[in-house]
Amino acid sequence: MTATGAGTASPLTVQGIDNILFTVGDLDAAVDYYGARLGLPLVFRLDDRGIALFRLGDEPPGLLVRESAEAGSPTSNDTRPRVWLEVADARAAGAELARRGLSPLGDPFAVATGWTVEVADPWGNIVGFTDYTTMPERARRR
Q1: How far is 49 from 52, CA to CA, in rounded Å?
Q2: Residues 64/20, Cβ–Cβ less than 8 Å
Q3: What are the tens digits of pLDDT across the range 100-138?
């Protein structure tokens, strides 16, 4: 595969993220977890299709959860699906998650850009909250 020149797009030129999809075992429990517990705004829910979409910040991409009897359960396997969401202060986010009764997978940990804290939903999908406190020039404009 070769790079394309400026102004030309190949069929595989990525224009951005459409949505992030997680498989869950129970749609009601997922709506509670992602909506009520993590505080993500629910965009829509289609019970007949077993899906719900949550807004992730002000950007168009969202987190789509899809109900399936084949959803995994939490494990210690580090290859579980994950998405990291940018927040102003990951350590404060970890404290808020604990206040909401969620148990982070561990203490906030240092990453190249700042700090990250992660939680797992009941099916093993991981949501991380990460900040850019050591590289504010790379953070989204607030």
Answers
A1: 9
A2: yes
A3: 999 999 999 999 889 999 999 999 999 999 999 998 888
Determine phi and psi for 98, rounding to 5 degrees.
Answer: -65, -40
* pLDDT bracket for residue 28 (50, 70, 90): very high
Residue 74 pLDDT > 50: yes
What H or E segment, with its residue span, contains residue 66?
strand 62-67
Q: Which two tokens stand for residue 107?
A: 């203490």
Which pair of tokens denotes residue 114?
């700042």
- What's the CA gap between 111 and 130, in Å, rounded? 8
DSSP 88-105: S-HHHHHHHHHHTT---S
For 34, phi then psi, to 5°, come to -75, -35
Closest CA to 70 of 28, 119, 123: 123
pTM of the model: 0.76
Token couple for 97: 């998650």
